[in-house]
Amino acid sequence: MKVYIYAKGGHTFGLDAIRRCSYITKLLDEKKCDPILCVNEFSAGAYAKKQLNIKNYITTETLNELSKVLNKGDTLIYESDEKSDFIESEAKNHFSFLYKIPDDIPISIINKFLYKKHNSKKIEKLFFYGDEDYSKDLINLCEKTTKYEIPLLLGKYFFIGDEKKLENSFSQLLNSHEYVNCIQNTKYLLCGSLNTCLESIECGNKPVLLKRKDKNYDERLIKEIHLPTINFTSFDETFTKFEKIIKSYPKLNKKEKFDIDTIINDIFVRINTYRRLNN
């Protein structure tokens, strides 16, 4: 009886699902459930291991392919919009537990091991477009702009050579390996990831969501917490609006915390019972 956590992510999708699923993996690991994180790309697994302290991961190209390693009685937690004939046909009979993000577990879960409130803020303002710029929207805009007095946190999946194209548009370029430290320590964050905004809020910071044209966002959640947003058009307009928002930053609404501990404990009890019966 094993526990698998599948996250769809990588160079075309970013790492938000990896971050959420890594947190769940870490919680299960704390309970000695020996969870296995499943990712699409080796680089995403390596990121989870080095940056998010995950012990075990495997790579699988698709959610459907995971059926080759799943056995009856296993537990699966997954975040993906992929269609899976195996899960749809075998879910009720095959798994001890089956949870899907966001249907059963909300996307608002944040890694409490990494993101906590603290008073010292070393970075006043920071721009984080996202983990990737696959459509080259950021790069294309940088070719038509002058330098802005705000540092840019690079995405892990920016292409080789992107730094040269970006360095003349921002006051400083920060390496993607500094992601966690930057999110923890930035007072005013402008970013294209709702998940990153939630991490920032958890640290007591004041983020602004930049709505990218190539991304979909949970509008209900954005409205619920009263998160300020900017539609991404031009840099001039974006940074002007950003400065206006942070001068009179709105009061955010607190979202009711999801009880992930109940799910973790249910899995732990089932696995512990199985181990006792088979030892």
What is the secondary structure topology, with strand pairs?
Layout: E1 3-7, H1 16-30, E2 36-39, H2 42-51, E3 57-59, E4 75-79, H3 85-94, E5 97-100, E6 123-128, H4 137-142, E7 152-153, H5 162-166, E8 173-174, H6 179-185, E9 186-191, H7 194-202, E10 206-211, H8 219-225, E11 229-231, H9 235-247, H10 260-277
Parallel strand pairs: 1-2, 1-4, 2-3, 4-5, 6-9, 7-8, 9-10, 10-11
Description:
With 279 residues, the protein is an alpha/beta fold. Helix content is 36%, strand content 16%. It folds into two domains: 3-109 and 259-277, Rossmann fold, CATH 3.40.50; 123-247, Rossmann fold (3-Layer(aba) Sandwich). The protein has ten helices and eleven strands. The longest helix is centred in the last third of the chain and has 18 residues, at 260-277. The two termini are 13 Å apart.
Write a compact overview of the structure shown:
This protein is α/β, with parallel strands linked by helices and 279 residues long.
